[in-house]
Prior knowledge:
With 383 residues, chain A is mainly alpha-helical. In chain A, 53% of the residues lie in helices and 0% in strands. In chain A, helix 1 runs antiparallel to helix 2. Chain B has six helices and no strands. Chain B has helices at 11-27, 39-61, 66-83, 88-106, 114-123, 132-162.
Amino acid sequence: xxxxxxxxxxxxxxITMLNKYSNTSESDPxxxxxxxxxxxxxxxxxxxxxxxHYHLVMENQGISGTSHVSQYQSSPSFVELxxxxxxxDGGNLSQIPGPFSLPQCNQIANSNERGSKxxxxxxxxxxxxxxxxxxxxxxKIRKRSPESDSPLRSCKNGDEEPGMDLSSEGCDGPREQxxxxxxxxxxxxxxxxxxxxxxxxxxSSQSGEAPKENYIHVRARRGQATNSHSLAERLRREKISExxxxxxxxxxxxxxxxxxxxxxxxxxxxxxxxxxxxxFLSMKLATVNxxxxxxxxxxxxxxxxHPQSAAVLGFGPGxxxxxxxSPSTFTGTxxxxxxxxxxxxxxxxxxxxxxxxxxxxxxxxxxSTMDGFGxxxxxxxxx
Amino acid sequence: MDSQLLNPTSLKSRFTARFLRALxxxxxxxxxxxxxxxxxxxxxxxxxxxxAADKSMAYSVRSRTTWSRATLSRLRTRSxxxxxxxxxxxxxxxxxxxxKKTSSHGKENEGGLGVQAGELRELVPGGEAMDLCNLxxxxxxxxxxxxxxxxxxxxxxNLYSLE
Lengths: 383, 163
């Protein structure tokens, strides 16, 4: 399956990176020996790029997530990469003893911590320089997954199911479970293990409660409960945060907002304002229409080809002052409405204001008969 | 938006074509530049235009998203309501019951976002029966379609006011 290939490909890349960066230490011979079966298997499977199935994922969601892909390209820090791409947990690094300790990398890693989820221990430091070095030259994570990606991926065996803790296993594997690794490799099933020595291989049904998403791999932290519920919980939470990030880009003016509740409020406000705009515009169209001959082709061509220019020309003398109308009440509501959220308007602010004035001049309504619409305060959504 | 030709199969062009067709249909029965339309007529036209806008957008999306399916079924049920008044309460009760059954399962893991999630569910059509994860997906697509709708309608309104 494509996802399996992806995983193996990532692994191959990460393994090569490991071999590149690991110097002499007592664990290294274990590394090299332990990873060999994985390397051979991953080589056989080949590595298709992460980009392919991420694009698939994005298409499946029906949302163009390319914007958030590009957002990730420039973040070299390892910890930030982890949750965004595959939900890797940085905590697994702690299981690899090693000689490398770069204080700067530790600081970077620690500064990028997200809450308590990805707490890195001092043992992790040796892994971080590998990651940073590996990721910083190549900004795009997805494209270079076949070559050299986060060494964290090396810990991840070729499992499709989320909720695996094979990474922790794999990293410690050489010492204890070298024999198990090929088996788990071929399993392609989900094994969730928090502590390496404790458990046996399980089947993929263990994390079957996770949805059928083969592109997110979640790892339990060391010492964290790895029962199915907490893993599924974590998976859900990460998915939700991912979608919140997507929405953050869709809704204008939400770049500085951190926190799901505030973000949701903003989203709700934005959706409400959009719906109100649709109603307002349909009302406007209802009043404007009867005076016009409609040439469909001309309108279509104008609309599609030059929407901006048409909008700019939209205001001006083209009014029909057949009605007199006291715009006092209406002015307050309507001009208040587009002005409250200037960031939300796709067209320049002035255009809408001019449209509004246009509307007044056309005689939207005599004030007395507006009750049916509830226009005293705002347009009633449902009538 | 620049002056290049849009993709003819994009959401925007599909919606524009449909909506304009519906608009011409709505405006056709009225004699052009007749006596001032009564507020009642305008109100009816407003409602029809609004329905046409929502329907055009939902049709342009086909059934790819839950909200489009919910919108289409809602519109169809409402049109049936108008014709067969006696059937109205029953169908609404049925849909509500069905939604209640399905909605209770998926909404367990909202964290502390239950209030906002409920509000969002009310806003997005068909959102009652979705868990938060899918709801956010639907919201993103819904927002995208709403902005398209607003843009197109604004441009059309401007064109009309031009002439």
